[in-house]
Amino acid sequence: AKAAKVPRRPVATICHIPLGRGRVTLGDMFSRPLLIALGLLTAAACGDDDPATRDVTLRFAAVAGDDEASCGSVHEDVGPGADTLTVTDLRFFVSNAALITADGRELPIRFDGEGGLSLDDVAVIDFEDGTGRCTAGDASMQSAVSGSVEDVDAVGLRFDVGVPFERNHSDVVFAESPLNRSSLFWNWNGGYKFMRIEGTVNDDGAMIMHLGSTACAPEGDPNPSACANPNRPEVVFDAFDADTDTITLDLEALFAGLDLAPADDGLDARCQAGFDDGDCAGIFEALGLPFGDTEA
Length: 296
Fold this sequence. Notes:
Elements (H helix, E strand, L loop, with lengths): L13 E2 L7 E3 L14 E5 L8 E12 L2 E2 L5 E5 L4 E18 L5 E3 L1 E2 L10 E5 L17 E7 L5 E6 L3 H4 L16 E3 L3 E2 L2 E7 L3 E7 L2 E4 L8 E4 L4 E4 L9 E4 H4 L14 E3 L8 H8 L9
Parallel strand pairs: 2-20, 4-20, 16-21
Antiparallel strand pairs: 1-2, 3-4, 4-5, 4-11, 6-7, 7-8, 7-10, 7-12, 7-15, 9-11, 12-19, 13-14, 15-16, 17-18
């Protein structure tokens, strides 16, 4: 029998501590959406007609409660069933990132593509290293993405978790990196897996969480015109210090509403973004996404 639910912990909170230790964890996972950023570096002028820009680096981390989460890490007491989770995959896309000024103006961040794990408007955050049980990806990893932004004072940050629609329904075979990863792709109609988090549970079960767009129309068409369920969580931090804050995804908070252990019928915990998938309900709530008749 499933254990009784326990009160949910926030997925994100904000704290301010010295550079290198600062951390912005997700609070309410996605009533304020999800993730993280850090760093302003140098300023440079682009030309007489272009605004001056500066370098910026968004740094990400993953934890389960107070413990760092990474490929192969083991975490006890996760979810209402207090299960043991061993991480075997942990990757997600971020896109349309922008710093926010005090008057609410968004300053788009243009990623520089360094390391081959980002394009100008989308990057993959990858904590999976292709070793041990982590076999879905490869050795390439990325926990920080750099780029440039207009050189204006900013107080906040926003970004989407996912791949922009105009990039989401292309041929993965011919796509530029990081959109050429078949393990992060469903099909042309559905597009990419915006988040892929997997693990083993209590040594005898498995957990799969894949987030992406669903109900894309026309159904089966490789070039859909729209998706009824975009499923791109928006992350917004109204108060964000780019010099001291890191964006942290808390798996303990993400899975606070999901029993990870196999159900009585032997089925593993599995959320693949379908509205008929009961295991998605708590995860979507944590991400601030609507699920079935439940609004965000």
